[in-house]
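tool_call: predict_structure(chain=1)
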Amino acid sequence: MQLIEVENLPGGSAAPPIRVGDVAIAEEAIAQEMQYHPSETVGEAQLKAARALVVRELLSQRAVELGLPPVVDAQGVENDAAMTELLDRELEVPEPDETACKRFFEAHPERFYDPVQLKVRHILLAAAPDDAQTRDAQYHEGVELLEELTVVPERFTEFALRHSACPSKDEGGELGWLTAGQTVPELDRALQHLPEGLHDRPLASRYGWHLVSIDKRVEAQPLPFEAVADKVHHTLHEQATRRALRHYLLALEETYGVEGLALDEDADGALMQ
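tool_result:
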């Protein structure tokens, strides 16, 4: 979607109003909608909000034309049931057959793996991210504890009970089996690359420093097609739905006319959430 730049307008005073057919999209409505589209910049949030309102209005006008229930009620709240009824009636989404599914599976084997699994113990030496003095002190304590654990690894449970700030200390620091995404991102990234055994230095996270032992590591394993057939089918069906919805919205834009904003190849994003 692209808004017309102010500097490209005669006089450069203000952007033109956004209209769908004869209906104007009010600036106040865009401002209100922005809260539902968190973005890195205000301009990006405004863009997403305007696009969502344009898409909603296009669908509303089409529903009225077909004599279907309104997709937005008098208070401006989307009617999900009415939206579904309209799209079920209007969209033609081809179902992927087994041949297409197998072709996709063979072309993207990296998507269909059992993830790396790690059996982890840790000791958390707590320190806030902005407390440089405590973080430094805790790091040095961690180094000293690791030096002792390298010589006497069987003391890990004892050290967890004595030093860890994590509730897992009552279980000897046991976190159980972990896969990617089950810890805070900064620690998660580090864990994915560790071999079995006691790691030789403290690992940082927003909570402090972690002394980590990987007791068991099971590498990622490729899955057979039969195990992921439903997932492949769902992926291809979603892709087909996105394409059909994008073409449908661009056709509605052509039919009813949109001023002040142009839907682009991401037109489906306002609904595929």
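agent: Helices lie at 27-33, 42-66, 80-90, 98-107, 132-151, 156-163, 185-191, 225-256. Proceeding to next step.
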